[in-house]
Amino acid sequence: MAQLFLSMPNWEDDGDVDSTKLIISLLNELESVFWSLINSGGRSEARLWLCNTISGISSISGDQQCELFVNLLRSKRLSQGVASQLLQMIFEKRPYKAGCVLAKKSYMLEKFFQGNPRRILQWFSNFSDSGGLGHQKGAKALSQFAFVNRDICWEELEWKGKHGQSPAMVATKPHYFLDLDVQRTIENFLEYVPEFWSSSEFAESVKDGEILCIDTKFFIEMFHNLMYKEDARDVWEVINEFLVEESFSSLCQRLLIILEEHEFCIFLELLRKYINPRMEPRDFGTTSYWLEIILSRCSDCKSIDQLLLLNAVINQRRQLLGFLNDGEYQDEHEKIKDIVLQISSASLKVNSLSMILKECLRLNTMEAIKIIGLNSWVIYSRLSEEGWTIESWESLFVSSGIQFRKSDKYVLLKHDELSEESRSDLDNIMSNRSRRKKKKKNRKKRRRNYHDDDESYDNELMDFDTSNSGRNLQSGAVSWLLSTDGFSASWTSADLPEHLSKHCLATWMKWLVNKWSNMD
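Structure (tokenized):
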């Protein structure tokens, strides 16, 4: 039977010193196996988990995240990848911001069209047969500029017919622009009409940023040069605005995964400057808060090994166990199962976590979090084992002092259970079960009344095992409301291991923080 150690520790109890030393030693051995697992092929997965946790940090303001990522972008040790990915995000989500920069520098787009018929036709061939108002994109700019500046450019218009069209004729029949040889005309403009490329008409056509879609790679390179070679102020202003407006989560999910490891360390060093969490007990249940504590107390981010391990153990329990279940890591899995069994056996002798916590008081914050984090993962592993029945879960709640109520997503099946009071012992559980059995026939009759026209629906509901049989636990049909979170969520057996192990870790950390506060 697993123990959750949720009773207040007796700090004066010396306990079983030998068993405590054995548990600490086994936890360190567990850490070593995790290192082996990460270094033998799980490092990229652990990096991804860490990036996901970082993206969940909510304490950083828009101005702070802007400063953080701008400092990252201006780092001389950074490769081109991050800037390119950020520009890609801007082009996708705020193309008009980049378009405004292009409108100011439209003359630079001559190179974009030179020697490239495909781009020319994509941008300038959108003439309409409904007249000038229907022309789109570059076609609209070309027609407007040609009329306004017909004295210098009309002769450069190339027509597909036997003869050209006069301005007067096209003015009365704008659809004649459909007969324009667009490729040859733009090639003429590139060579003989430089005024067009810096004109207000052409600038207006690119202002919305739609032109970015024609060749994103070209514009990313163009903007990258504006950022670093020319240090263009207007480009950096667009970047700053985007970094303030975009969510921290979105930025992290798109940018962090492409960082090289040394670049990721640069980011972590910068991130630490914006994190200063207070040790607030109410926040210990928050996934990202643990990372904030660790980062704020990690004096050296040049090696991210410790962060990878702690994040995997504390915030990615289910993913880590799933990774272990991969047949490729069978040896590591067997070692960990053996260590978990030894720790569980030794913990029964210690009878509480007080000795482990007393040992943590002698360690620095990082080491203490590592010890109790590994111990919470041991509990998660035990709770994730097969064989847990309804009775064994409820027995664990009772022995751990956790009040609970039976909940059911299928309210029609167990209508009366949502109003039941918290149970404090197994005798109440058995008596309540008897009452439910007496009401079972009445509930079946009500179901038939509600669904006389839908026999298949009735049969489907009746297929679920609604008894509390320990031999047949259906996690989808049975769930509980627990006092661990104020009865605010419904937990099934699939989710209980993670929820309870997190609750244990948060509880232990509260005790440590309170003890540290009293020692100061």
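The chain has three domains: 17-57+277-383, 68-254, 390-492. The beta strands are 404-407, 479-482, 490-492.
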